[in-house]
Amino acid sequence: MNNHEIDYKLFGEEMQCVEIELDPQEAVVAEPGSFMMMTDGIQMQTLFGDGNQTGFMSKLFTAGKRLLTGENLFMTVYTNISQQKRQVTFAAPYAGKIIPMDLSHLGHKIICQKDSFLCAAKGVQVGIEFQKKLGTGLFGGEGFIMQKLEGDGMAFVHSGGHVIEKALQAGELLKIDTGCIVAFTSDVNYDIQFVGGIKNTLFGGEGVFYAVLRGPGKVWIQTLPISRLAGRILSYGSGARKEEGSLLGGLGNLLDGD
User: Fold this and answer.
1) Residues ≥6 apart with Cβ < 8 Å to 124
2) The domain at 7-236 falls in which architecture?
3) Is 118 helix (H, G, I), strand (E, B) or coil?
4) How many Cβ atoms sit within 10 Å of the Cβ of residue 142?
5) Which residues on adjacent β-strands are paired with residue 44?
6) Which sign does the torsion angle of CA 154, 5, 128, 130 carry?
7) Which DSSP symbol is given to 241?
8) Residue 66: φ, ψ to 5°
9) Domain boundaries in the chain?
């Protein structure tokens, strides 16, 4: 194996964290802001890109690609420089599930939403995946520019709400809201389709396009994309409050402190 071999434990239910156990000289790479805690003996180093590049131009090119996915220019590498096993823990950014993925059992490559990557064994390459079809590129929304994780080590991605894993058979087709896709294996064919119908387009409330995934391969689907959650919160905070059938109406708002 080219990637570091790491052990891990998941804690929690809806607000999860993952504890990575590192042998001496083993390392894990993570997104900035995901760090929670670590034991003594672990060295933290901030690097351009995913830490796999050697030359300056290679590092700069990798960092530039990360900008296209809306990610930070830098990533952080945590290395166990002691002579004993040490632990470092990373927390999920919002309510949902952390999905451990062994890339050596998933074709050495997965495609995931640009904001779902949490951490991975040192040596896993974190890049970008452009959807090549014109329709996908123009209308893919959240699914247009995605991340790709390549290697033979462990990687951890995060989903919003509950996560459902589906194994698609050859030729089996699944239509999904573009924001609900967490990740899929590289052998899955990905495209965007128009919902169709004037009423569906204007009044459906589910978007004009959806993603079409065709097997074979594995797909991970989330029940609550962070974009959908943020939209609901903004809508609730900026609009008029629904009284939910209260006879008190505005007076009820005064009584409960609003």
Assistant:
1) 3, 29, 50, 103, 149, 150, 151, 153, 154, 155
2) 4-Layer Sandwich (3.60)
3) strand
4) 19
5) 78
6) negative
7) P
8) -65, -30
9) 7-236
Residue type, 225: P
Please state the pTM of the whole predicted model: 0.79
* Alpha helices, H only, the chain: 56-68, 134-139, 198-203, 226-238, 250-255
Q: Are strands 17-22 and 42-48 parallel, antiparallel or unpaired?
A: unpaired
Residue 110 and residue 185 in contact, taking contact as beta carbons nearer than 8 Å: yes
pLDDT in tens, 183-198: 999 999 988 877 655 4
The one-letter code for the residue type at 79 is T
Q: String of b and e for 73-82 (b: at least 16 CB within 10 Å)?
A: eebbbbbbeb
Burial of 208 per CB tally in 10 Å (0-12, 13-18, 19+): middle
* Cα within 13 Å of Cα(154), Cβ side: 20
Q: 50-78: per-residue pLDDT in tens?
A: 555 555 555 555 555 556 555 566 789 99
Task: For residue 189, count CB atoms less than 10 angstroms from its CB and return exposed for 0-12, middle for 13-18, buried for 19 or more.
Answer: middle
Residues 32/79, Cβ–Cβ less than 8 Å: no
Angle subtended at Cα 121 by Cα 73 and Cα 144, rounded to the nearest 5 degrees: 50
